[in-house]
Structure formats: C-alpha cells, structure tokens
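Hi U.,

Before I forget, here's the chain from the pilot set. I'm dumping it here mostly so it's searchable later in email.
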Amino acid sequence: MELLNVRALLMLVKRIWEDDIFGLAAQLAYFFLLSLFPLLIVLVSLIPYLPIKQEEMLWVVADFAPGQTMAFIETNLNEIMSHQNGTLLSFGILATIWSASNGMNALIRALNKAYEVKESRSFVVARGMAILFTFALVFVFLVALLLPVFGKQIGMFLFAKLGLSSQFLAFWNMVRWLMSALIIYLVFLAVYWIAPNKKFKCIEASPGAFFATVSWLVVSFGFSYYVSNFGNYSAMYGSIGAVIVLLIWFYLTGVTILLGGEINALASQLKNENC
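Structure:
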C-alpha cells in the first residue's frame, strides 16, 4: 500500500509537470480577473430584486479574498455602478458571459488534457456548456447570498422560541462557514463531473472536489493572512498593488482547481489499471 501511494504521488507530480498546470493556472487567473467586474455588475444589478444589500454581497467575497483587495473592488464597483444604465447592464451581462465562458473553455481544455481525451463536442456545444457554467456560477453565488439571509432569520426565530437567542450567534457563525464550504464543494463537484469530455459517475469526481475545496479554503485564508501581516505589495507595485494581490489569489485558485482535476484523472487511471 505504501509503495502504491508513493507511485501515485510520483505519477501526480509527473502529470502536473507534463500538463503544465502552473501555466494553465496563469491563463485561468487572467480570465478570472477579466470576468470579475462584469460578474459583480450583474450581481449588483440584481440586488434590488432580492432581499439583500450590496454590502452583504461584498461581505461574502471578503470572507475569502485577501484583505487589501476589498477596498479596490468596492471602490471600482461603486464608481462603475454610479454610471449604471440599461446599456451598462446589458454590456455587463454580455461581457460576463463572454469573458467567463472563455475562462470555462480554458478549464474544460485543461480537464480534457488531464483525462487525456480530445474535445469531440462541437464549438456550439462546448461554448454553450461554458455559458451554462457561467449562469450556474451566478445562480450559486445568489444562493450563497440568500441562504445566510434566510437562514439567519429562521435561526433567530427558532432560537428565540427555545429561549436560546444569546447562543445563536456563535452557532450561526459555525453553520455559515459549513454552508459556504458545502456550496464550494458542490460547485467543484459539478465542474469536475460535467466539464471533461468523458463520461463517469458523479461520485468519481468527489476526491478532486474535496481536495479542491479544502485546499482552496486553506490557500485563501493563508494567503490573506500573509498579505495582511507580511506582504506589502503596495510598496513594490504602487497603486496596482491590490490588482497584483488579486491576480495572485486567482492564480492560486487556478492551481487548486487544476490539481483537483488531475487527482480525479489519476484516480480514474489507477482504477482502470486495477480492473
């Protein structure tokens, strides 16, 4: 068993090198950065129709994003939204679909490379899948916003009935983080299951999804702590320091996602070898 684990680890390292994971992660980081503000524009434009505020939406981002990037995101978003009109909203939706679908296309190609399969689906099908993933991402983000709002209201009501209102906030903070982790896991699971041009059971995508979820949370919090306490990117890069921090965070996110895909592909390969 120990030899098998060592062999699997060496195979994973070989895959990471041959599939150029770090180069593909840089490509994903570019598309993530490109699609960030169009995506936020669409979400903010939908807020008037939902029982949430813009500040609550940004709090969700702030839970994971490196600290000094939030001022940059909020300032630029407020400036963009101050000039909002119907044309801007339409542009935001179109730009989000296009830029995010490019990112999803890059992710689909990377996962196909991990599974060593070629993209046999037509351009329309592949692009349509990327667009559906974009809409799914918006939907998941809205669910991630709405669940805490309604969950807190329901929890306050139930705890008040039980006479435990004072204990609710501590309980709620734990539940909120668990809900966020579960939503992230389900997103990764769906991407790993649907995106590759290969048919397999949903459960077979769970190892990579679990790894990506845990790793992404650890990397996000670790990088945020480093930036807040040690990394002074503003001194090195000046006014674009926040952009550099955001780009590095997106790069680490891309590495994490691709590693999860490589783990699933390796598990599939080892399973076929043992059959």
